[in-house]
Specification:
- By secondary structure, this protein is α/β, with parallel strands linked by helices.
- The chain has two domains: about 160 residues, Cobalamin-binding domain (Rossmann fold, 3-Layer(aba) Sandwich), CATH 3.40.50; about 290 residues, tm_1862 like domain (pyruvate-formate lyase- activating enzyme, Alpha-Beta Horseshoe), CATH 3.80.30.20.
- Helices cover about 40% and strands about 15% of the residues.
- The chain has 16 helices and 13 strands.
- The strands form three sheets. Strands 6-7-8-9-10-11 form a six-stranded parallel sheet. Strands 2-1-3-4-5 form a five-stranded parallel sheet, sandwiched between helices.
- A hairpin with a 7-residue loop joins β12 and β13.
- The longest helix is centred in the last third of the chain and has 31 residues.
- It is globular.
- The N and C termini lie close together (about 10 Å).
Length: about 500
Amino acid sequence: MIHLLILTADAAPNESRNLFGLRTLGPSKISWSVRKHGYNSITLARLQLLEEDEIINIAQSLLNEKTIIGVSTSFLNPLSILNNKLNPTNTADKIIIKLINVVNKLRSRYNNKVVVGGSIGKFYHDIFNADKSFDGGAENEIVQYLDRHFRSGIQKIPYDWDIQNCNFRWHTSDIIQSKEALPLEISRGCIFNCKFCTYSEIGKKKGTYERNINEIRNEIIYNYDNFGSTHYWLASDTFNDNDERMNEWCEMIESLPFNIYYSCFLRLDLAYKHLATTKRLYQCGMRGAHFGVETFHPQSAKSIGKSFNGIYGKSALEKIFYDTFESNVATTTTMIVGLPYETIESVYDSVRWYSEHKHINTSFIPLTLINHNVIPEEKLRSNEFSRNIQKYNYRFENNDIYDWKSELMNFSDAKKISGDISNILNNFDSLDCWFGLVHLAVSDKTPKYFFENKANLVRQTTRPHIESINKNYFNLLKDYVNTLVSNN
Protein backbone atom coordinates (compact mmCIF):
# COMPACT_ATOMS: atom_id res chain seq x y z
CA MET A 1 0.00 0.00 0.00
CA ILE A 2 0.97 3.65 -0.33
CA HIS A 3 1.28 5.13 3.14
CA LEU A 4 1.78 8.74 2.04
CA LEU A 5 0.64 10.25 -1.27
CA ILE A 6 1.92 13.81 -1.80
CA LEU A 7 0.38 16.31 -4.24
CA THR A 8 2.44 19.24 -5.47
CA ALA A 9 2.70 21.82 -8.23
CA ASP A 10 5.91 23.06 -9.82
CA ALA A 11 8.15 25.61 -8.13
CA ALA A 12 6.57 29.09 -8.39
CA PRO A 13 3.82 27.85 -10.74
CA ASN A 14 2.42 30.77 -12.69
CA GLU A 15 1.80 31.09 -16.40
CA SER A 16 5.28 32.24 -17.39
CA ARG A 17 7.12 29.87 -15.09
CA ASN A 18 5.08 26.87 -16.16
CA LEU A 19 7.27 27.02 -19.25
CA PHE A 20 10.22 25.79 -17.28
CA GLY A 21 8.59 22.76 -15.64
CA LEU A 22 10.75 23.02 -12.54
CA ARG A 23 9.73 20.40 -10.02
CA THR A 24 9.74 21.17 -6.33
CA LEU A 25 12.30 19.44 -4.13
CA GLY A 26 10.66 19.40 -0.69
CA PRO A 27 7.84 16.90 -1.41
CA SER A 28 10.21 14.37 -2.99
CA LYS A 29 12.57 14.75 -0.01
CA ILE A 30 9.68 13.98 2.32
CA SER A 31 8.81 10.87 0.30
CA TRP A 32 12.47 9.85 0.40
CA SER A 33 12.62 10.38 4.15
CA VAL A 34 9.60 8.24 4.96
CA ARG A 35 10.84 5.47 2.65
CA LYS A 36 14.03 5.29 4.72
CA HIS A 37 11.80 4.46 7.67
CA GLY A 38 9.99 1.63 5.91
CA TYR A 39 6.96 3.42 4.49
CA ASN A 40 5.85 3.64 0.86
CA SER A 41 5.37 7.13 -0.54
CA ILE A 42 4.83 8.70 -3.96
CA THR A 43 4.95 12.36 -4.92
CA LEU A 44 2.73 13.45 -7.81
CA ALA A 45 4.33 16.58 -9.29
CA ARG A 46 3.52 19.24 -11.92
CA LEU A 47 -0.16 19.07 -11.02
CA GLN A 48 -0.80 22.62 -12.20
CA LEU A 49 -0.65 21.17 -15.73
CA LEU A 50 -3.43 18.59 -15.19
CA GLU A 51 -7.18 18.93 -14.86
CA GLU A 52 -8.83 17.85 -11.61
CA ASP A 53 -10.22 14.64 -13.08
CA GLU A 54 -6.83 13.65 -14.46
CA ILE A 55 -5.20 14.08 -11.05
CA ILE A 56 -7.97 12.12 -9.34
CA ASN A 57 -7.74 9.26 -11.85
CA ILE A 58 -4.04 8.83 -11.13
CA ALA A 59 -4.25 9.37 -7.38
CA GLN A 60 -7.31 7.34 -6.46
CA SER A 61 -5.80 4.11 -7.77
CA LEU A 62 -3.06 4.52 -5.13
CA LEU A 63 -5.35 5.15 -2.18
CA ASN A 64 -6.89 2.92 0.43
CA GLU A 65 -8.53 3.79 3.73
CA LYS A 66 -5.18 4.11 5.54
CA THR A 67 -3.30 6.24 3.00
CA ILE A 68 -2.42 9.74 4.19
CA ILE A 69 -2.83 12.48 1.60
CA GLY A 70 -0.12 15.15 1.74
CA VAL A 71 -0.23 18.59 0.11
CA SER A 72 2.85 20.70 -0.55
CA THR A 73 2.09 24.42 -0.15
CA SER A 74 5.51 26.09 -0.42
CA PHE A 75 4.87 27.63 -3.81
CA LEU A 76 1.20 28.49 -3.41
CA ASN A 77 0.19 32.14 -3.17
CA PRO A 78 -1.39 33.10 0.18
CA LEU A 79 -2.55 36.59 -0.88
CA SER A 80 -6.03 35.61 -2.13
CA ILE A 81 -6.61 33.36 0.86
CA LEU A 82 -5.80 36.24 3.19
CA ASN A 83 -8.33 38.42 1.36
CA ASN A 84 -10.89 35.59 1.13
CA LYS A 85 -11.05 36.15 -2.63
CA LEU A 86 -9.90 33.02 -4.47
CA ASN A 87 -10.43 33.88 -8.13
CA PRO A 88 -10.90 30.88 -10.48
CA THR A 89 -9.63 32.95 -13.42
CA ASN A 90 -6.35 33.83 -11.70
CA THR A 91 -3.53 31.38 -12.46
CA ALA A 92 -2.14 31.21 -8.91
CA ASP A 93 -5.61 30.89 -7.40
CA LYS A 94 -6.65 28.19 -9.88
CA ILE A 95 -3.91 25.93 -8.57
CA ILE A 96 -5.07 26.35 -4.97
CA ILE A 97 -8.71 25.77 -5.91
CA LYS A 98 -7.74 22.71 -7.93
CA LEU A 99 -5.77 21.16 -5.07
CA ILE A 100 -8.55 21.86 -2.57
CA ASN A 101 -11.12 20.20 -4.84
CA VAL A 102 -8.85 17.23 -5.54
CA VAL A 103 -8.14 16.65 -1.84
CA ASN A 104 -11.82 16.86 -0.94
CA LYS A 105 -12.84 14.41 -3.67
CA LEU A 106 -10.05 11.96 -2.89
CA ARG A 107 -10.78 11.70 0.80
CA SER A 108 -14.54 11.57 0.33
CA ARG A 109 -14.28 7.82 -0.36
CA TYR A 110 -12.22 6.67 2.62
CA ASN A 111 -12.16 9.77 4.84
CA ASN A 112 -8.36 9.79 4.57
CA LYS A 113 -6.15 11.81 6.89
CA VAL A 114 -4.72 14.95 5.23
CA VAL A 115 -1.45 16.67 6.11
CA VAL A 116 -0.10 19.90 4.64
CA GLY A 117 3.50 21.09 4.63
CA GLY A 118 5.70 23.82 3.25
CA SER A 119 7.50 26.96 4.31
CA ILE A 120 4.26 28.26 5.86
CA GLY A 121 2.36 24.98 5.89
CA LYS A 122 0.37 25.78 9.02
CA PHE A 123 -1.14 28.80 7.27
CA TYR A 124 -2.94 26.40 4.91
CA HIS A 125 -4.17 24.08 7.67
CA ASP A 126 -7.77 25.28 7.71
CA ILE A 127 -8.29 25.79 3.98
CA PHE A 128 -7.41 22.13 3.36
CA ASN A 129 -9.21 21.02 6.54
CA ALA A 130 -5.98 19.25 7.44
CA ASP A 131 -5.44 16.82 10.28
CA LYS A 132 -1.83 17.94 10.71
CA SER A 133 0.35 20.71 9.31
CA PHE A 134 4.11 21.26 9.23
CA ASP A 135 6.17 24.43 8.78
CA GLY A 136 9.54 24.24 7.05
CA GLY A 137 11.69 21.12 6.84
CA ALA A 138 9.72 18.13 8.17
CA GLU A 139 11.94 15.15 7.39
CA ASN A 140 11.85 14.03 11.02
CA GLU A 141 8.39 15.28 12.01
CA ILE A 142 6.54 13.52 9.20
CA VAL A 143 8.07 10.17 10.14
CA GLN A 144 7.07 10.67 13.75
CA TYR A 145 3.52 11.36 12.55
CA LEU A 146 3.47 8.22 10.39
CA ASP A 147 4.81 6.14 13.28
CA ARG A 148 1.94 7.33 15.45
CA HIS A 149 -0.56 6.65 12.68
CA PHE A 150 0.66 3.25 11.48
CA ARG A 151 2.77 1.83 14.34
CA SER A 152 1.03 3.13 17.47
CA GLY A 153 4.00 5.43 18.02
CA ILE A 154 6.63 2.72 17.90
CA GLN A 155 9.92 4.13 16.62
CA LYS A 156 11.98 1.66 14.59
CA ILE A 157 14.66 4.03 13.29
CA PRO A 158 15.99 7.19 15.00
CA TYR A 159 14.58 10.52 13.85
CA ASP A 160 18.06 11.84 13.15
CA TRP A 161 17.88 13.50 9.75
CA ASP A 162 19.98 16.66 9.43
CA ILE A 163 20.95 18.79 6.46
CA GLN A 164 24.69 18.32 6.89
CA ASN A 165 24.58 14.56 6.37
CA CYS A 166 21.61 14.39 4.03
CA ASN A 167 22.10 11.64 1.42
CA PHE A 168 18.91 12.28 -0.57
CA ARG A 169 18.23 10.27 -3.74
CA TRP A 170 15.50 10.67 -6.33
CA HIS A 171 13.17 7.67 -6.60
CA THR A 172 11.95 5.76 -9.65
CA SER A 173 8.47 7.19 -9.05
CA ASP A 174 9.85 10.74 -9.40
CA ILE A 175 10.25 10.07 -13.14
CA ILE A 176 13.51 11.98 -13.60
CA GLN A 177 14.43 12.71 -17.22
CA SER A 178 17.79 13.66 -18.68
CA LYS A 179 18.21 17.35 -19.52
CA GLU A 180 15.61 18.19 -16.87
CA ALA A 181 16.90 20.90 -14.54
CA LEU A 182 16.82 19.33 -11.08
CA PRO A 183 16.83 21.14 -7.75
CA LEU A 184 19.97 20.35 -5.76
CA GLU A 185 19.96 21.25 -2.08
CA ILE A 186 23.28 22.80 -1.05
CA SER A 187 22.30 24.23 2.32
CA ARG A 188 19.28 25.09 4.40
CA GLY A 189 19.52 28.54 5.90
CA CYS A 190 21.29 31.86 5.52
CA ILE A 191 23.89 33.71 7.60
CA PHE A 192 22.34 37.11 6.82
CA ASN A 193 19.41 38.94 8.43
CA CYS A 194 17.96 41.11 5.65
CA LYS A 195 15.16 43.19 7.16
CA PHE A 196 12.70 42.57 4.31
CA CYS A 197 13.19 38.78 4.37
CA THR A 198 10.39 36.53 5.66
CA TYR A 199 12.47 33.35 5.66
CA SER A 200 12.64 31.67 9.06
CA GLU A 201 16.09 30.12 8.64
CA ILE A 202 18.14 33.34 8.76
CA GLY A 203 21.01 34.40 10.99
CA LYS A 204 22.61 30.96 10.88
CA LYS A 205 26.17 30.28 11.99
CA LYS A 206 28.64 29.08 9.39
CA GLY A 207 29.18 25.36 9.47
CA THR A 208 25.71 24.60 10.86
CA TYR A 209 23.47 24.58 7.81
CA GLU A 210 25.67 23.51 4.87
CA ARG A 211 25.35 20.05 3.37
CA ASN A 212 28.45 17.88 3.27
CA ILE A 213 30.17 18.40 -0.09
CA ASN A 214 30.77 14.67 -0.52
CA GLU A 215 27.06 13.97 -0.12
CA ILE A 216 26.36 16.55 -2.82
CA ARG A 217 28.95 14.96 -5.11
CA ASN A 218 27.49 11.51 -4.55
CA GLU A 219 24.03 12.75 -5.44
CA ILE A 220 25.28 14.41 -8.64
CA ILE A 221 27.04 11.21 -9.70
CA TYR A 222 23.98 9.10 -8.82
CA ASN A 223 21.77 11.38 -10.92
CA TYR A 224 24.14 11.20 -13.86
CA ASP A 225 24.52 7.42 -13.69
CA ASN A 226 20.80 6.75 -13.30
CA PHE A 227 19.12 9.57 -15.20
CA GLY A 228 21.81 11.27 -17.29
CA SER A 229 21.23 14.51 -15.32
CA THR A 230 23.58 17.45 -15.96
CA HIS A 231 21.40 20.54 -15.28
CA TYR A 232 20.62 21.93 -11.82
CA TRP A 233 19.23 24.89 -9.96
CA LEU A 234 20.89 25.13 -6.59
CA ALA A 235 18.67 25.27 -3.53
CA SER A 236 20.77 27.61 -1.44
CA ASP A 237 19.55 30.97 -0.18
CA THR A 238 22.94 32.64 -0.57
CA PHE A 239 25.18 30.24 -2.43
CA ASN A 240 28.39 32.30 -2.20
CA ASP A 241 28.22 33.23 1.48
CA ASN A 242 31.48 31.36 2.22
CA ASP A 243 34.42 31.76 -0.16
CA GLU A 244 36.26 28.73 1.18
CA ARG A 245 33.21 26.57 0.56
CA MET A 246 32.82 28.00 -2.95
CA ASN A 247 36.30 26.84 -3.84
CA GLU A 248 35.53 23.48 -2.24
CA TRP A 249 32.47 23.32 -4.52
CA CYS A 250 34.57 24.15 -7.58
CA GLU A 251 37.14 21.51 -6.70
CA MET A 252 34.35 18.96 -6.39
CA ILE A 253 32.83 19.95 -9.75
CA GLU A 254 36.25 19.84 -11.41
CA SER A 255 36.73 16.30 -10.08
CA LEU A 256 33.59 15.01 -11.81
CA PRO A 257 34.08 12.88 -14.93
CA PHE A 258 31.38 14.94 -16.71
CA ASN A 259 30.22 18.56 -16.91
CA ILE A 260 27.23 20.03 -15.12
CA TYR A 261 25.40 23.34 -15.62
CA TYR A 262 23.62 25.24 -12.90
CA SER A 263 21.94 28.46 -11.78
CA CYS A 264 22.14 29.92 -8.29
CA PHE A 265 21.45 32.90 -6.05
CA LEU A 266 24.54 35.04 -5.35
CA ARG A 267 25.18 37.98 -3.06
CA LEU A 268 26.59 40.83 -5.12
CA ASP A 269 29.10 42.26 -2.64
CA LEU A 270 30.65 38.83 -2.03
CA ALA A 271 30.73 38.01 -5.74
CA TYR A 272 32.62 41.25 -6.35
CA LYS A 273 34.91 40.82 -3.35
CA HIS A 274 35.93 37.36 -4.56
CA LEU A 275 36.03 37.89 -8.32
CA ALA A 276 38.47 35.04 -8.88
CA THR A 277 36.09 32.64 -7.17
CA THR A 278 33.11 34.08 -9.06
CA LYS A 279 35.02 33.51 -12.30
CA ARG A 280 35.75 29.96 -11.23
CA LEU A 281 32.05 29.33 -10.56
CA TYR A 282 31.32 30.38 -14.14
CA GLN A 283 34.11 28.19 -15.47
CA CYS A 284 32.66 25.27 -13.47
CA GLY A 285 29.31 25.44 -15.23
CA MET A 286 27.31 28.31 -13.79
CA ARG A 287 24.92 29.52 -16.51
CA GLY A 288 22.38 31.48 -14.48
CA ALA A 289 22.93 33.94 -11.62
CA HIS A 290 20.42 35.94 -9.61
CA PHE A 291 21.49 38.87 -7.45
CA GLY A 292 19.18 40.34 -4.81
CA VAL A 293 20.22 43.94 -5.36
CA GLU A 294 17.00 45.51 -3.96
CA THR A 295 18.12 49.14 -4.41
CA PHE A 296 20.89 51.38 -5.74
CA HIS A 297 19.94 54.20 -3.33
CA PRO A 298 22.82 54.55 -0.82
CA GLN A 299 20.79 55.35 2.30
CA SER A 300 18.10 52.82 1.44
CA ALA A 301 20.67 50.09 0.80
CA LYS A 302 22.34 50.85 4.14
CA SER A 303 19.01 50.55 5.94
CA ILE A 304 18.53 46.95 4.77
CA GLY A 305 22.13 45.88 5.36
CA LYS A 306 23.31 46.09 1.76
CA SER A 307 25.40 49.25 1.74
CA PHE A 308 27.62 47.90 -1.04
CA ASN A 309 24.76 47.85 -3.54
CA GLY A 310 23.98 51.50 -2.92
CA ILE A 311 27.53 52.60 -3.72
CA TYR A 312 29.04 50.01 -6.03
CA GLY A 313 26.06 47.98 -7.23
CA LYS A 314 25.91 49.26 -10.80
CA SER A 315 29.63 49.06 -11.50
CA ALA A 316 29.84 45.64 -9.84
CA LEU A 317 27.07 44.24 -12.03
CA GLU A 318 28.79 45.62 -15.14
CA LYS A 319 32.15 44.17 -14.11
CA ILE A 320 30.74 40.75 -13.27
CA PHE A 321 28.47 40.35 -16.29
CA TYR A 322 30.74 41.69 -19.02
CA ASP A 323 34.14 40.72 -17.64
CA THR A 324 33.93 37.92 -15.07
CA PHE A 325 31.03 36.12 -16.79
CA GLU A 326 32.19 37.12 -20.29
CA SER A 327 28.52 37.94 -21.07
CA ASN A 328 27.88 34.23 -20.95
CA VAL A 329 25.86 33.81 -17.74
CA ALA A 330 22.17 34.75 -17.79
CA THR A 331 22.11 37.39 -15.07
CA THR A 332 19.03 38.79 -13.37
CA THR A 333 18.34 40.88 -10.29
CA THR A 334 15.43 41.79 -8.04
CA MET A 335 14.69 45.37 -7.00
CA ILE A 336 12.22 46.35 -4.27
CA VAL A 337 9.95 49.38 -4.61
CA GLY A 338 9.07 51.04 -1.32
CA LEU A 339 12.18 50.60 0.82
CA PRO A 340 13.07 53.27 3.41
CA TYR A 341 14.46 56.56 2.07
CA GLU A 342 14.01 55.70 -1.60
CA THR A 343 11.87 58.12 -3.61
CA ILE A 344 9.90 57.37 -6.74
CA GLU A 345 12.44 59.46 -8.68
CA SER A 346 15.26 57.28 -7.37
CA VAL A 347 13.41 54.12 -8.43
CA TYR A 348 13.10 55.45 -11.97
CA ASP A 349 16.79 56.37 -12.00
CA SER A 350 17.42 52.64 -11.52
CA VAL A 351 14.98 51.86 -14.32
CA ARG A 352 16.94 54.11 -16.66
CA TRP A 353 20.16 52.29 -15.74
CA TYR A 354 18.62 48.89 -16.53
CA SER A 355 17.25 50.28 -19.79
CA GLU A 356 20.83 51.15 -20.76
CA HIS A 357 22.09 47.70 -19.65
CA LYS A 358 19.58 45.44 -21.34
CA HIS A 359 21.78 42.36 -20.98
CA ILE A 360 21.13 42.40 -17.22
CA ASN A 361 17.55 41.34 -16.64
CA THR A 362 15.62 42.56 -13.59
CA SER A 363 12.30 42.44 -11.81
CA PHE A 364 10.92 45.27 -9.69
CA ILE A 365 8.57 44.10 -6.95
CA PRO A 366 6.66 46.04 -4.26
CA LEU A 367 7.80 45.86 -0.65
CA THR A 368 5.59 43.46 1.29
CA LEU A 369 4.71 44.30 4.87
CA ILE A 370 2.12 42.46 6.93
CA ASN A 371 -0.31 44.19 9.25
CA HIS A 372 -0.04 42.09 12.39
CA ASN A 373 -3.08 43.77 13.88
CA VAL A 374 -4.98 41.78 11.25
CA ILE A 375 -2.83 38.68 10.81
CA PRO A 376 -0.87 37.57 13.89
CA GLU A 377 2.74 36.68 13.19
CA GLU A 378 2.24 33.12 14.45
CA LYS A 379 -0.19 32.59 11.56
CA LEU A 380 1.85 34.17 8.75
CA ARG A 381 5.61 34.59 9.04
CA SER A 382 6.83 38.15 8.78
CA ASN A 383 9.98 40.27 8.50
CA GLU A 384 11.83 42.83 10.58
CA PHE A 385 10.09 45.77 8.88
CA SER A 386 6.62 44.36 9.63
CA ARG A 387 7.47 43.59 13.24
CA ASN A 388 8.78 47.11 13.90
CA ILE A 389 6.95 49.30 11.39
CA GLN A 390 7.15 52.53 13.40
CA LYS A 391 10.91 52.20 13.77
CA TYR A 392 11.21 52.28 9.98
CA ASN A 393 8.55 54.98 9.50
CA TYR A 394 5.83 52.77 8.06
CA ARG A 395 2.25 52.63 9.24
CA PHE A 396 -1.06 50.90 8.55
CA GLU A 397 -4.10 53.14 8.58
CA ASN A 398 -6.82 50.55 8.04
CA ASN A 399 -7.46 46.84 8.40
CA ASP A 400 -5.96 45.87 5.07
CA ILE A 401 -3.30 43.20 5.41
CA TYR A 402 -0.68 44.73 3.10
CA ASP A 403 -1.66 48.39 2.68
CA TRP A 404 1.34 50.11 4.26
CA LYS A 405 2.15 53.79 4.00
CA SER A 406 5.29 55.87 4.45
CA GLU A 407 6.19 59.50 3.95
CA LEU A 408 7.45 58.70 0.44
CA MET A 409 5.11 56.03 -0.88
CA ASN A 410 2.35 53.53 -0.16
CA PHE A 411 1.71 49.93 -1.11
CA SER A 412 -0.70 50.81 -3.93
CA ASP A 413 1.87 53.15 -5.46
CA ALA A 414 4.59 50.50 -5.14
CA LYS A 415 2.42 47.90 -6.88
CA LYS A 416 1.52 50.24 -9.72
CA ILE A 417 5.09 51.42 -10.17
CA SER A 418 6.36 47.83 -10.27
CA GLY A 419 3.83 46.97 -12.97
CA ASP A 420 4.63 50.09 -14.99
CA ILE A 421 8.35 49.33 -14.83
CA SER A 422 7.79 45.82 -16.12
CA ASN A 423 6.12 47.30 -19.21
CA ILE A 424 8.87 49.89 -19.64
CA LEU A 425 11.68 47.33 -19.48
CA ASN A 426 9.79 44.61 -21.37
CA ASN A 427 11.20 42.09 -18.93
CA PHE A 428 11.52 38.48 -19.90
CA ASP A 429 8.84 37.22 -17.55
CA SER A 430 10.01 33.66 -18.16
CA LEU A 431 13.40 34.65 -16.73
CA ASP A 432 12.29 36.37 -13.54
CA CYS A 433 12.37 32.99 -11.83
CA TRP A 434 16.10 32.64 -11.17
CA PHE A 435 16.15 28.86 -11.00
CA GLY A 436 14.73 28.77 -14.53
CA LEU A 437 17.83 30.41 -15.93
CA VAL A 438 19.68 27.13 -16.19
CA HIS A 439 17.40 26.05 -19.01
CA LEU A 440 19.17 28.48 -21.32
CA ALA A 441 22.06 26.03 -21.13
CA VAL A 442 20.12 23.62 -23.36
CA SER A 443 20.83 26.02 -26.23
CA ASP A 444 24.13 26.73 -27.92
CA LYS A 445 23.21 30.43 -27.93
CA THR A 446 24.73 32.67 -25.27
CA PRO A 447 22.53 34.57 -22.81
CA LYS A 448 23.74 37.78 -24.42
CA TYR A 449 22.13 36.62 -27.66
CA PHE A 450 18.75 36.30 -25.98
CA PHE A 451 18.92 39.67 -24.28
CA GLU A 452 19.81 41.37 -27.55
CA ASN A 453 16.77 39.92 -29.25
CA LYS A 454 13.12 39.47 -28.42
CA ALA A 455 11.95 37.69 -25.31
CA ASN A 456 10.07 35.11 -27.34
CA LEU A 457 13.39 33.72 -28.55
CA VAL A 458 13.82 32.29 -25.06
CA ARG A 459 10.52 30.50 -25.40
CA GLN A 460 11.21 29.36 -28.96
CA THR A 461 14.47 27.81 -27.81
CA THR A 462 13.32 26.19 -24.60
CA ARG A 463 9.59 25.52 -25.06
CA PRO A 464 9.84 22.29 -27.11
CA HIS A 465 12.37 20.94 -24.62
CA ILE A 466 10.22 21.71 -21.57
CA GLU A 467 6.93 20.66 -23.15
CA SER A 468 8.52 17.33 -23.99
CA ILE A 469 9.66 16.89 -20.37
CA ASN A 470 6.16 17.68 -19.07
CA LYS A 471 4.42 15.34 -21.51
CA ASN A 472 6.85 12.51 -20.92
CA TYR A 473 6.53 12.94 -17.15
CA PHE A 474 2.80 12.30 -17.15
CA ASN A 475 2.99 9.43 -19.65
CA LEU A 476 5.74 7.72 -17.67
CA LEU A 477 4.00 8.44 -14.37
CA LYS A 478 0.79 6.81 -15.58
CA ASP A 479 2.74 3.77 -16.77
CA TYR A 480 4.51 3.56 -13.40
CA VAL A 481 1.25 3.79 -11.45
CA ASN A 482 -0.50 1.24 -13.67
CA THR A 483 2.39 -1.20 -13.21
CA LEU A 484 2.47 -0.62 -9.48
CA VAL A 485 -1.27 -1.19 -9.12
CA SER A 486 -1.29 -4.30 -11.31
CA ASN A 487 1.56 -5.84 -9.29
CA ASN A 488 -0.38 -5.35 -6.10
